[in-house]
Fold this protein.
Amino acid sequence: MTLLSSDGPSPDNPRLTVRGTVAELMLNAPSKKNALPLAAWQALPTRLVALREDKDVRVCVVRGAGGKSFCAGADISEFEAIRSTPEAAKRYDDINVAAFKALKSLPVPVIAAIEGPCLGGGLGLALACDLRVAAQSAFFAIPAARLGLAYPPEALGDLLEAVSPSEAKKLLFTADRLSAHQALAIGLINEVVPDDKLDERIDTLTATLCANAPLSLKAAKQAINQLAATGTDGKFAELRRDAERCIDSEDYREGCRAFLEKRQPRFNGL
């Protein structure tokens, strides 16, 4: 096994390893259900640089450490300190979006192996992958509306590649939690397997992809990503202003306080 790491404040989160032709990106905060701190989001694009130059790697698997969680999103306990103003929130969102883009733009196929919670930014990471295989016990949600914040508009393009606009709105409006089978039914994921068969299915799928022509897979990925692009680059500034208004609201502060105090938020639209 080769360990690929880079300079940074948290060299083990995320952790990148390579076994032969298969790379594995491990989201490594199991005590927090792999909710990622800002340092991990910042480190992720750098971790992936080596894969862009490694001609032997044919596929990358993304999974959560500990065998119980994929990723519960961002570490919300940090928000009051590092995401308290529109400017700080924009920087945080920029870092999140850079992580999503770094994963999505890898030249090789990327598979998310999902178990347990796959929430918020964690779902954003899964949607940046090309394929999503979930254990039966996995569950999914985008809880932005319960925190009083807006999901990064750039990340919504990945969501809309997987589900219809109507289903995307339902996920965002309700913040409802979906089971693996519900997620499969709307196209959010590609497959559901029994919990004890997830590793076996990932091994089989990676073997299939590794046996196929790498240039063909690369060409297909690039073409599909380009064709599926939303084409809203010119509107992102306007969309970002709407998101920034959320961060500058009392509702956002109330949402974070309620989450940390483990109670229902009381929003007033201000």
Q: What stands out?
A: The longest helix spans residues 86-104. Residues 1-9 have pLDDT under 50 and may be disordered. The radius of gyration is 18 Å. The chain is about 50% helix and 15% strand.
